[in-house]
Amino acid sequence: MLTMPDTESAVARAEELEHELRSLIPAHRGNVQLHRHHVREGMIGRNVGEIARFADRVVATAPYGLEARPLQVAVLEASLFAGGLPVIVVPDGGAEIAPCPGRLMLAWDGSREAMVAARAALPMLRRARLVDVVIVDPEVQVGARSDPGGDIALFLARNGVAVEVSVLARSRFRNSEVLRRHAMDTGAEAVVMGAYGHSRLREQLFGGTTREMLTNARLPLILAR
């Protein structure tokens, strides 16, 4: 059954959130702007994408959990695909990334999406004491470098990032499990990774590293594509 949206409740909730957020903005940050937008559910893909293009980052809640969260999924995908900018996904229960993180993890598979994520996160990667480039079961190709991850490590070091490379065997069924376990074991404060290397439809039907990492998020994920 289709019903008309409760516009008054939505506007009231937006005003409440605006009031909460204003108290978090430092007084000296005069360059921070806060705008309210009321978006109908069927227009999320278009409207959120247009709004996101003029932001620096999108901060979003984890799109998957014990209950269905179709609106959060729509916002995340609109930000990545239509907005074209990085998204910081906050796990259930909240999380905090220090201004100068002790350790960040970059999930690397050599894809265009992973490179876009690395470039988008460069300001944060530079401030970290250490960035761990993690590669799971790298493919060995003829003519490729003998040191997996050497190219991205050199790129990051050239840009002022303290970096090390970890090459992991896929000892578990899924890459996402290997990545998640390594992040927790090493004390990473956040994971940087490319999003949706496969099509969204394929990930919905068969799963994929992006969807699995989002479903079981324990740490903030910094996604880009």
TrEMBL record:
Gene3D superfamilies on file: 3.40.50.12370
SUPFAM superfamilies: Adenine nucleotide alpha hydrolases-like
Domain UspA per the UniProt entry, residue ranges: 103-224
Pfam families attached to this UniProt entry: Usp (PF00582)
Family: Belongs to the universal stress protein A family.
Name by which UniProt lists this protein: Universal stress protein family protein
Organismal lineage: Bacteria, Pseudomonadati, Pseudomonadota, Alphaproteobacteria, Rhodobacterales
